[in-house]
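Quick note —
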Amino acid sequence: MMVDVVRTAVGALLLVRPDLPARVSGTAESDVVRMVTRALGGRYVVQGISAAARPDRGPRRLDPLVEGAHGLLMLGLGAVSPRYRRLALSSAAAAAVFVLLDLPAR
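Predicted structure written out below.
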């Protein structure tokens, strides 16, 4: 499905360029931000490949829940951390987009 290709491509981009989300959101770059961004990119790649590898939709059923949980965590981080607010809210918005893309795929 197209959402799996998009998720995998976004994940690969985050693995290769973990500085981009911080730069786009205006968040100060740090080793921690790059490490967390790479971890998210790795999760996107694994999630996208595993869903594409199982055309019976086994793993795909969990995608909206995984993205929803990620989005809620990022909203919480944005609420309590002024330092990471923009980055967290950007990540929550991306998670919401993936939820919307995942729902028709179910």
